[in-house]
Design brief:
Elements (H helix, E strand, L loop, with lengths): L2 E3 L24 H5 L13 E3 L20 E3 L5 E6 L15 H23 L1
Antiparallel strand pairs: 1-2, 3-4
Length: 123
């Protein structure tokens, strides 16, 4: 559902009063930093649009257990011959949290490792 409205509550000209925040919450260089960008527009006049947002699942932690060679580990704790895994299917190496860009390195490192091990297994 889209909504459009004009809001007299925030024009950006007085960041200490119009939005109810204390002026000291704003960094003194905020305006100077933004002034270096030519693409920033004046937002003192509407219309303004807003969209409703909601959280979503983009990743799950956990997955197939592997060793440092990319070999899939059985429920008995030993490698399953000829079965390799890499990337996010393995749950990653990030522990209790995951930073999106870090997943790329995880996929590259373990993809290369698992690929080399699989090639060795086939020979």
């Amino acid at each position: 559902k889209r909504r459009a409205r004009s809001s007299p509550q925030w024009s950006g000209s007085n960041p200490g009063g119009e939005n109810g925040c204390n002026r000291w919450q704003y960094h003194p260089l905020f305006g100077g930093f933004n002034s270096q960008f030519s693409w920033i527009r004046d937002l003192s006049e509407g219309p303004w649009y807003s969209v409703q947002i909601a959280p979503g699942i983009h990743h799950t932690m956990g997955g197939i257990v592997i060793n440092t060679k990319g070999e899939v580990i059985s429920t008995q704790g030993s490698p399953i011959p000829g079965l390799y895994a890499c990337g996010e299917v393995t749950g990653g190496v990030h522990g209790g949290n995951r930073v999106g860009g870090n997943a790329i390195l995880d996929c590259l490192v373990f993809g290369t490792t698992a690929g080399k091990q699989a090639a060795t297994h086939v020979k």
